[in-house]
Amino acid sequence: IMVTQLDFAEAWGGICHAGYWFAAVVALWAFLYVLNTLSWWIIIRSQKETATPVPDKSKGLRGAMEFFWLYRVTISGFALNYATPGGLMGGEPYRIMSLKRKIGVERASSSVILYVMTHIFSHFWFWLLSILLFVVVRKVTMPTCIMLIVTAVVCLAAIWFFLRGYKRGLAVSAMRIAGHIPFLKRWAGKFVSSNSERLAEIDKQIASLHNQNRLTFLLAVCLELLCRFFSAFEIMFVLLVIVPDISYWDCVIILAFTSLFANILFFMPLQLGGREGGFLMSATGLGLTASAGVLVALIVRLRELIWTGIGLFVIK
Fold first, then answer.
1. Helix/strand/coil (H, E, C) string of the chain?
2. For the chain, what is the largest distance between any 2 Cα atoms, rounded to a whole number of angstroms?
3. Which positions ≥6 away from 2 have C-beta within 8 Å?
């Protein structure tokens, strides 16, 4: 679609015309990563100390310098997630390995699992709220109504599943599910038998956030949800170049549809094609031109590549 339908001269002109708006897009994500880090930070600080000895526990996670260290790990974790297939296959193990030296493997594992759960949990809330927003600001046709109802049901089911996971933990359940998968049965059985106490401790840490620290749990979720809504300004900054009267709420709807479509294709490295297709369909669905949708996709992709490069660079 990009090769056959995109007016490259118009797209290049839009990129050149973006100017300082592109700088604003890149700078916006420096702020959004602060919100992501703050959400992970309060999850870590709310957890109880692990009984497992920590090699350099004296460092801990205290003070502005340690927050900056966690900020760097957050950026690198997202960079690895962008660059590897399987969605969470790259960044999350890196986060655990980086953090376990400071707070122990159980707290590191549970905090990363909790943060990933919170990150995904906020996505489902964002999509659900975006459905309500679409109904308020847009005319709903019968096919659109059916699609919105199906999406809402899936989001509500996912929210219920995550709340259940927050209450009981997910580590042991995940290993039990793995024990029923043909190629993982033998490995999962051995892993559970040799790490049963560690898995139980991880689940205990996960459950404690929701059951004992409700305020911390709500704050972490709200920060991640706020991050989703703030990230809609990225689309708005780009579209202001070619559509001066673009509405912020339309940008939220574009982001919601695009992120939903792209996450369905989570197994593709950099979500290649999925995100561009999502921008194209959502933009044309709201009455914008196809070139506008592809221009947004190109600018967002350039921003993503810049931050992926930064994240990979600061690993060392």
1. CHHHHCCHHHHHHHHHHHCHHHHHHHHHHHHHHHHHHHHHHHHHHHCCCCCCCCCCCCCCCCHHHHHHHHHHHHHHHHHHHHHCCCCCCCHHHHHHHHHHHHHCHHHHHHHHHHHHHHHHHHHHHHHHHHHHHHHHHCCCCHHHHHHHHHHHHHHHHHHHHHHHHHHHCCHHHHHHHHCCCHHHHHHHHHHHHHCHHHHHHHHHHHHHHHHHCHHHHHHHHHHHHHHHHHHHHHHHHHHCCCCCCCCHHHHHHHHHHHHHHHHHCCCCHHHCCHHHHHHHHHHHHCCCCHHHHHHHHHHHHHHHHHHHHHHHHCCC
2. 62
3. 276, 294
Give the residue among 83, 89, 166 at the shortest CA–CA distance from 124.
Answer: 166
Residues of the chain with pLDDT under 70: 1-8, 10-11, 14-15, 18, 48-65, 85-89, 169-173, 178, 180, 183-185, 192, 205, 209-212, 264-275, 278-279, 286, 290-291
Q: Give which of 114, 110, 111, 107 is closest to 49, Cα–Cα.
A: 107
Tokens matching residue 195: 């790490």
What sign for the dihedral angle of Cα 104, 107, 109, 111?
Answer: negative
Q: How far does the chain reach from its first CA to its final CA, in angstroms? A: 38
pLDDT at 259: 83
Please give the Cα distance from 95 to 101 (Å, whole number). 11
- The answer to whether the Cα torsion of 145, 251, 271, 174 is positive or negative is negative
> What is the token pair recorded at 179?
């024990």
| Cα angle 279-268-119, degrees, rounded to a multiple of 5 | 75
Q: Residue 58 has what pLDDT?
A: 43
Q: What is the pLDDT of residue 36?
A: 94
Q: Which residue has the tokens 């975006």?
A: 130
Contact between 238 and 18 under an 8 Å Cβ cutoff? The reply is yes
